[in-house]
Structure formats: structure tokens, C-alpha cells
Design the sequence.
């Protein structure tokens, strides 16, 4: 089993474990309907990711062609570039959405939510700067 497939398996098991814990908590605790629906949505998302990774891992174990394709993706620079560009676009879009939502909340006089969203945007940008500097120094 390659390193890439092992990472996918660990990620799948981690997502599955967290999803099951949150699902058990959601059904065992009597909380507000809003929190209950949020937790169920979170669980559905994280379990979908776990199922995808598990299907990927088990299909690679059964088929040599799929395993070869996955191992090729590990070393192919084009796949790495596409992955990194997708992550970068996702980061930029999520930061933009959070910033716009924070401004909208401030205009709608929802200052506690605006403050939380603004704090998240700031933390993400600081983390980006820290990792940028670390990677720049390493390379």
C-alpha cells in the first residue's frame, strides 16, 4: 500500500470516527432544533468525505489499474499543480465569502456574528502569512 493510499485511509477513518461521534452526540443530546440540524448537516458532509475516501482506497486495493493511476497522481506534477490551484482558489473564495458575510452582518446590525466572521478572516490570513513565510524560508 503506497503512502498516498495510507494517508487516504487514515483520513477516511478519521472522518468516519468524527462523523460517528458527532452523530451519536446529535441524537443523544436534546438541543435546539437549529443546532440539531447543523450537526446533522455537518455529519452528512463529513461522512460523505469518509465514504469517498474509503471507496477510493478499497477500489485501489482491488484493481491494479486504479492503484497505478493513484500512484501516478502522487508523482505527476500536473496533478499536484491542479490540486494546489484548486486549494488556492477554494481558500480565496472562502475568505471572500466570509469577508462579505461579515460586512453584510455589520450592516444588518448583527455585530456579534460580524465580529466572529471578521475574526475568522483575520485568523486565516495570519495563518496564510505564517505558512507562506515558513515555505518561503524552506525553499
Sequence:
Amino acid at each position: 500500500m503506497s503512502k498516498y493510499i495510507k494517508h487516504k485511509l487514515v483520513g477516511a477513518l478519521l472522518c468516519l470516527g468524527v462523523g460517528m461521534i458527532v452523530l451519536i452526540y446529535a441524537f443523544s443530546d436534546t438541543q435546539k432544533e437549529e443546532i440539531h440540524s447543523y450537526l446533522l448537516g455537518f455529519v452528512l458532509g463529513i461522512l460523505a468525505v469518509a465514504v469517498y475516501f474509503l471507496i477510493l482506497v478499497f477500489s485501489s486495493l482491488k484493481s491494479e489499474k486504479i492503484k497505478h493511476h493513484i500512484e501516478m497522481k502522487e508523482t505527476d506534477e500536473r496533478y499536484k499543480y491542479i490540486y494546489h490551484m484548486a486549494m488556492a482558489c477554494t481558500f480565496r473564495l472562502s475568505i471572500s465569502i466570509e469577508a462579505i458575510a461579515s460586512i453584510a452582518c455589520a450592516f444588518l446590525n448583527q455585530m456579534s456574528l460580524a465580529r466572529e466572521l471578521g475574526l475568522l478572516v483575520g485568523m486565516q490570513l495570519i495563518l496564510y502569512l505564517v505558512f507562506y513565510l515558513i515555505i518561503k524560508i524552506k525553499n
Summary: The chain has a mean pLDDT of 87. The longest helix spans residues 77-107.
